[in-house]
Amino acid sequence: MSIASSGLITTNREPIATYRTYEEAQKTVDHLSDHGFPVKGTLIVGVGLRSVEQVVARMTYLRAAGWGALSGAWFGLLIGLFFGIFAARPGAWLTLLLWGLIWGAIAGAIFGLIAHAVHGGRRDFVSESSLVADRYEVLVDSEHAARAHELLRKPSG
What we know:
The structure is a single chain. Helices cover about 50% and strands about 25% of the residues. The protein is of the alpha+beta class. Helix 3 (about 60-85) packs antiparallel against helix 4. The chain is elongated, with a radius of gyration of 26 Å.
């Protein structure tokens, strides 16, 4: 049982405002804070959550190799830096760094190609996932709700 599903997190809290965007809810909490309201324990709750996956590109073998090479290069760079620390000659660390970068990119490209081929065309796209809410509610401790309503009637500025 999660805290959210049990209702424990919203116990003794009262909704004071509802907004269509997170930024509007955030501005409300900032407004309350700017006017000395005790914001500790205030919640911004996303209601009506949906998972949205936006497709941004087609995954090709070239793109799979490229992404694999980039991630492999970073890993190889890290390995090269690690071995460079223990280099006997002062200039040898640069050579180790470059070799790590090159071999990491090669290994990463190969792994990227293999991983893409294993999928067998089941996921031939690149996407970005996010959670989106229908609305955002600002909840405050019940004992401070009246003060929050009073402060929200004041214009900001």
